[in-house]
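Bench log, entry 3. Co-assembly request; chain sequences pasted below exactly as received.
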Amino acid sequence: MVEAFAVASGKGGTGKTTSTLALGMALAEQYDVTVVDADTGMANLLFHTGLDDVDVTLHDLLVEDVATDVSAAVYERFGMHVVPCGTSLAAFRAADPERLRGVVADLAADTDVLLLDSPAALGSKSAVLPVVLADRTVVVLQPTIPSLSDGLKVQEYARSYGTETAGILFNRIRDDADVDRVVDRAERYFGGRTLGVVPESDVASDARRAGEPLLSYAPESTAAEAFRDAAARIDVRAGDSEDVADRFRSAVVPDEV
Amino acid sequence: MRIPRGRLVRSRVVSDPGVALASALDRELTGYAVFEPQDALLLDEGTAGIVTFDSGVPVLAYNTETDRGGADALADLAVPGPYSVELYEVDAAALEDTHDTPELRVAPDVPADRLAGDLALAERTREAAPDDRLDAGDPADPVEAFLEDEEKIEAIREQAREEARTRAEEWGLSAALDDG
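Structure output for the full assembly:
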C-alpha cells in the first residue's frame, strides 16, 4: 500500500521540514515511510538529517543522461528511507523537474507512506509538482494572516489537480498565543482534520543544528509529543502500490514538447 | 481618527507590510505609516490603512475605507501585496491625543506577528515596547477578524483557482488538472 502526501505551506518559516520529518518518524512506528526533499530549489532536509555530505541526492536523479538508480539517493536514517536534495544552484538548473514523476513512481512502488517536503512557493512548475503528484496534502500553518492566506492558496492549487487536503497542522505556536478561536475558524475553510497545534520550541532549531529530526533529538519534548499526536490523526489510506506507481509514471504530467 | 500632518520620511512600494514595520522600528519612528494596497481586485479603490507608532512600536490601527480600528483595521489590510507605504514623522507631543484612543489600539507585536507573519520582527518589537504596553495590549486578534470575513476568503480562493488554471496552461500541466 502507498499514499503520497505533500507537506506544504504557502509561506516559508512555518517549520515545514521539521514537520515533515517529525510526521515521518512518528508514522514510521507503524508504516514503511519514505521522506523526499521535493523542495529542489531550496533544499534543507539534508541539514535536518545529517546528510549534508552525501554524494548522491535527488538532484542527481533529476538530471537527464545521468544513469543513476533511484536507490543510490535513498539513505536509511532514523527508521525511514530519506531522499535528500542537494543545494547547488547549478544542479537545480540542470535538473528536469518532470523527472520527479518517475522518481516518485519508483519510490512509491516500495513503501507505505511517501512524504514530499514541498516548496514554500507556487511560482514555478517544480514548486507545484509535489502537490500535483501527491494523493493528499498536509498544510502547515501559523496563526498569521499571510500564512493562512497562502495556505488557502496552496489548498486551491492542490485541489485544482485533484489533490485534497488530508489535514492542517499549526506549528511554531507561542505559549502565550491563544489560538483556539483561530483554529476553530480556520477549520471551516480547510479540508481534512486539524492534525495538531505544535508549540514553538528551541529544541526544533537545536535539532536542526545537530542534524537530527526533532523526534530523534528530543523525543520527550512537548513539540515531539504534539507531532506524534498529529501523525496519529492522519488516516493513511491503503492504495495498491503498483497502481499508484503506474499513475505517477503515466498519467500525471505530460511530456514537454 | 484625527492625526496631525507629519513629515514624509520614507515612501516606497513593498510586497510585504513587514518591510515597512521593520523600517519604522529600526528608525524608532514616532508618527504613522499609510499603507495603500495596489491590488484593487480584492478591495475598493482608495482603501488605506494607517498604523501609528511611538518610538518604532505600533500603537493604533485604522482603516479609512472601512472606518474600522484596531485588530479589524489590520484584518482589512490583509490583501496580497504590493502596498505603497509612506512613513511620516510627527512630534510625540502632537500624537498624544491621537494615541489616547483605546478602541483603535493594537498590541505592539500584533502587526508584525499576525499581519506580516514575521516572528523575528515581532520578537524585536516586543523587546522595544515599554512594559505597560505589553501588559495592556488589545486582546483582539486580526487573524480572527480576517477569518470572519468570508467574502474576502472566498475572493482569495477564487483568485487562487484562476491563477492555478492559468499557470497550469503555461507549465503544460493542463492535462493534470482535475477536470483536465
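Chain B has a mean pLDDT of 88. The radius of gyration of chain B is 18 Å.
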